[in-house]
Design brief:
This protein has one domain. It has 161 residues and is mainly α. Helix 3 packs antiparallel against helix 4, helix 3 runs antiparallel to helix 8 and helix 4 crosses helix 6. The N and C termini lie far apart (53 Å). The relative contact order is 0.14.
Length: 161
């Protein structure tokens, strides 16, 4: 049996992560506004001059979807399906690695480790539990994130070369 205080602590971490992931696009828009103001040009011209800004904005727009998936995983944990959440957290970590969001990689790894520690699960047993004919429906949201991350990663590689 897990400690109620530890579960409440984990709930707080999930809520903080959801807030950070949700506000990312707004923070990036503010960053663009400050940059455009500093240079003295409109935001539209700043975006037109550097295509990296569009790609980074798309990366920032993926994060609220990850927050939605995180809230769904949080509900699954509260309903007793910890393995579902662990498997999906791993898929989301892979997506964040592709998006090159170091802060969110650290945040999701922290959530994964806390979840495993509090509920006394291992990654191996979570994958054994979920590895069945419905595995791809289990990780479908994470696959969408990986697909979008692949497009953004390809665009970043093309822009940088």
């Amino acid at each position: 049996m897990t400690n109620v205080n530890k579960i409440k602590s984990l709930d707080k971490y999930y809520n903080i992560a959801k807030i950070f992931l949700t506000i990312t696009p707004f923070l990036y828009i503010m960053y663009l506004c400050i940059g455009a103001t500093r240079i003295g040009i409109p935001i539209s011209q700043l975006i037109q001059e550097d295509p990296k800004n569009i790609v980074v904005f798309l990366v920032a727009m993926i994060n609220p979807f990850i927050a939605y998936l995180l809230s769904f995983m949080h509900r699954k944990i509260n309903n007793g399906d910890v393995a579902y959440s662990v498997v999906n957290l791993i898929v989301l970590i892979i997506g964040e690695v592709m998006l090159q969001n170091v802060l969110y990689i650290i945040l999701l790894v922290f959530l994964l480790l806390k979840t495993l520690k509090i509920y006394n699960y291992s990654i191996k047993e979570c994958f054994k539990t979920k590895w069945n004919k419905d595995f791809f429906s289990t990780i479908s949201g994470g696959l969408i994130v990986i697909g979008l991350a692949s497009i953004c990663l390809f665009a970043i590689f093309r822009i940088n070369s």
